[in-house]
């Protein structure tokens, strides 16, 4: 990211300019790189094409599978929960987080801590998200209940 873009985003984060003004300024810097909302561009890292230089197709979904036996759920047999979250939604959320003013970041961080989630929004950057996705090949967590009942949770990208 060049210095002009960084300054515009910092002014937006501090509240010196509005989101519309920031969009206009970013468009003035380089009108060819601004992508309208809802459109798809392979340059934006949307998961529609291979990463440059790697030949590896980026994942399109974050998938969470939860399998619980009947002793945990009360239902006969195995209960499975299958959630697929589009990676574009995660990437867009990280990009939008850059537009949140610092004061709001502080309040959100404190709310997370109050609820037992040690998360700092200002530390989540798009490049960190891509690194996390690369490392999130396959994560399996076995959760054991009060009476020794086991639940299997898998989080992975596909």
From TrEMBL:
<feature type="region of interest" description="Disordered">
    <location>
        <begin position="37"/>
        <end position="58"/>
    </location>
</feature>
<dbReference type="Pfam" id="PF22746">
    <property type="entry name" value="SHOCT-like_DUF2089-C"/>
</dbReference>
<protein>
    <recommendedName>
        <fullName>YvlB/LiaX N-terminal domain-containing protein</fullName>
    </recommendedName>
</protein>
<feature type="domain" description="YvlB/LiaX N-terminal">
    <location>
        <begin position="3"/>
        <end position="31"/>
    </location>
</feature>
<dbReference type="InterPro" id="IPR053959">
    <property type="entry name" value="YvlB/LiaX_N"/>
</dbReference>
